[in-house]
Amino acid sequence: GAGVSQSPSNKVTEKGKDVELRCDPISGHTALYWYRQRLGQGLEFLIYFQGNSAPDKSGLPSDRFSAERTGESVSTLTIQRTQQEDSAVYLCASSPYQNTQYFGPGTRLTVL
Amino acid sequence: AQSVTQPDIHITVSEGASLELRCNYSYGATPYLFWYVQSPGQGLQLLLKYFSGDTLVQGIKGFEAEFKRSQSSFNLRKPSVHWSDAAEYFCAVSKAAGNKLTFGGGTRVLVKP
Q1: Beta carbons of B63 and B79 less than 8 angstroms apart
Q2: Residues of A near B (CB-CB distance < 8 A)?
Q3: Do residues A1 and A98 touch, judged by C-beta distance below 8 A?
Q4: What tens digit of pLDDT does each residue of A52-91 get?
Q5: For B105, which of A41, A100, A106 is closest by C-beta distance?
Q6: Within 10 Å of residue B79's Cβ, how many Cβ atoms?
Q7: Bridge partner list, A35
C-alpha cells in the first residue's frame, strides 16, 4: 500500500520568508510525527499528533514553528520568518495507535 | 530525559565481514528500542524493534540486535555484510509504543569491495 508522502521534496527559500511543508500519512494511522534532521546530525523530535488529543509540541524549537493536522489526515508544518539555521531535512512519520512509526522521504529545506 | 549514544560515527567494513553497531541508551524504565536505516536520498526504514520478551531480536535484511539491560545497550549485528548495506544507521528509544522517538547521532557504514 501507499506509504507516507511528503511535499515538496525540495524547497529553497529566502531568509525571512514563510514555508509550508505537507505530510500525507498512511491511511488509518492515528498518530503523526514531525522530526528535523540537520546536516550530519541525528533526528530531532518536533511535534506529535495522536487522534483528537492535544498535540505534543515539546520539540518545537521556537514560536516560528507551528503545525496543524485535520483529524487523522494531512498535516502541515509551517515555519515563519525562516532563518538559515532552519535548513534541514524535515521528516514526517505516521503510526497506528501505539505502534511502529513509518517515515516519509522527507522535505529538504534550504534557506538562503 | 531519555538519550541515545552511538559511539561510532563511521565504520568501514569489508563485504562479507561481520558488522556490529553500538547503541547505548539512558532511560529510567524499560525502554522501547528501535534500529532504523537510512540509505542515501531515502527516508528511514525500520530494521527491527524491541518492546519486551526475548532480548535477541531478529529484523529484516539479516540484521539482529540484542537488548542488554545491565549494559543499557542495544547493539545491532549482521554476520555477513553486503555492499547494499552501506547506509546510515540510527538507534532510537521511546518510553512507550507510539511515543516520540529520541534518536542517536547515527553511524555511517561504508562497505569495501
Answers
A1: no
A2: 4, 31, 33, 35, 41-45, 48, 50, 56, 59, 91, 93, 95-106
A3: no
A4: 889 999 999 999 999 999 888 899 999 999 999 999 999 9
A5: A41
A6: 11
A7: A45, A91
